[in-house]
Amino acid sequence: MGSPRMTLQTQLVLRALLEDPAKQRYGLELCELAGLPSGTIYPILARLEQVGWVDSTWEDPAVHKEAGRPRRRFYQITKDGAEGARDALARVYRARKQPLPGWVARPVSDGGAS
Amino acid sequence: MSARRRLAPRVKTRPCAVPSLGSLLATVRTHHPDSDLSLLEQAHDEAALWHAGQTRRNGDPFLTHCVAVAAIVADLGMPPAVVCAALLHDIEDTSCPPGRVAERFGQETADLISTVRTTRLNEIPPSALNLGNARPRPLQPTREEAVLAIRLADRLHNMRTITFVAPARQHRVARETLELAAPLAEAAGLDEVGRELHDISSAVLRPTVSAWAVTPRLLTVLTLLLPAPQRARWQEEWHAELATLPTRRARTRFTARILLSTPRLTLTLRHPIRQERW
Question: Which parts of the sequence belong to the HD/PDEase domain (chain B) (predicted)?
């Protein structure tokens, strides 16, 4: 299925999901965790779901009826997703370590390569 | 504004918020003209004595609740003994020594009060009771009927003043009322009580349209942009999120952000397999 485009927002969402991969979270909760405004997150979640990185399910009726609110949609990162996301995040991180084009002024990194 | 909710249409039996002892006695007298009402005055004084200093969540003295419950019970045509128990129905929560009620108001009243306290709504069999208008008056209720009348009156007054309770508790109580108390009242022939319980609980569980009208409708319209098979899911998901937002401002902000991101979501959903570039 490929992998999603790793925009900054996508990275934030993946990080939020990876914080506790076993936990199911709903949209607004993820917004808060990722520090993103509500709205941004839904297209990202839809994309992640398409590529099979995220699974979503409706809330258990017993829970939301007890709480007296409509049922929520819960998202959870899949096994594939967790692997893919860690991989992709690492790749992004490595990519960032590489020097930027010469016309961008860049402070010398503490890695020592100049 | 959002917290202010329109409750059920007012029923003719509640012209003033806090019925007085005088109006309570008058009601009992209309149903039971020959009865001795000094017992009720005593019960009122007793309740006033032990509930002194206690207040309800809306700031009223607690005694108003006792009188209000008794007034509802009296309205149903219950005899003075039951109205008396209604006045004293919460007295076991006070520092009133056990045995005092039995001593002053008789063992039967004391027993009725403890039964009211210990009976759970779901333990009352609905079919055995008939308190409706078909019943000949003056009413001589059985023990079960008296218990039911006091429990329902208690619940009804609590529901009428539920705005002062924390929202989570409001929901819980309203749900229980809708599932247990209202059907029980209707099964016992107390249509008006049942209807009011039903209306207030529904109003609590489903806040009024006015405060909510704009944003949910806009959300629904927004889902029309999405591919048809997916609309229902996103609509439900967004509405669920919207329902948990506490203020109108937060709801508006949420909707505005959904508005901004819907085109993107539409693109995402319409082009599922496109391999995206890095």
Answer: 58-168
pLDDT on residue B85: 92
pLDDT at A105 over 70: no
| Architecture, CATH, for domain B21-205 | Orthogonal Bundle (1.10)
Q: Is B75 a catalytic residue?
A: no
CB contact under 8 A, A42 and B277: no
B272 interfacial to chain A (CB closer than 8 Å)? yes
pLDDT at A62 over 90: no
Omega before B138 cis (within 30°)? yes
Residue type for A109, please?
Answer: S
- Domain residue spans of chain A: 8-93
Domain chopping of chain B, boundaries:
21-205, 211-270
Looking at the domain that runs over A8-93, which CATH code has it been given?
Answer: 1.10.10.10
User: Rounded to a whole number, what is the distance in Å from the CA of B3 to chain A's nearest CA?
Assistant: 16
Long-range CB pairs of A91-94 (<8 Å, 24+ gap) are: A91/A6, A92/A6, A92/A11
| Distance of residue A83 Cα from the nearest chain B Cα, in angstroms | 18
Q: Hey, are the CB atoms on A38 and B253 less than 8 Å from each other?
A: yes
Mutate to test the interface with B, among A13, A24, A45, A47 (most CBs of B within 10 A): A47
Provide block-wise average pLDDT over 10 residues at a time, chain B (278 residues).
Answer: 48 54 88 85 90 87 92 89 91 86 89 88 70 64 86 91 85 88 86 89 71 71 86 88 83 88 88 56
Q: CB of B121 within 8 A of CB of B179? A: no
**Angle, CA of B34, B35 and B37, to the nearest 5°:** 135
> Which residue type sits at A29?
E
pLDDT per position as a tens digit, A41-56:
999 999 999 888 999 9
Please pick, among B45, B93, B103, B179, the residue that the annotation labels catalytic.
B93
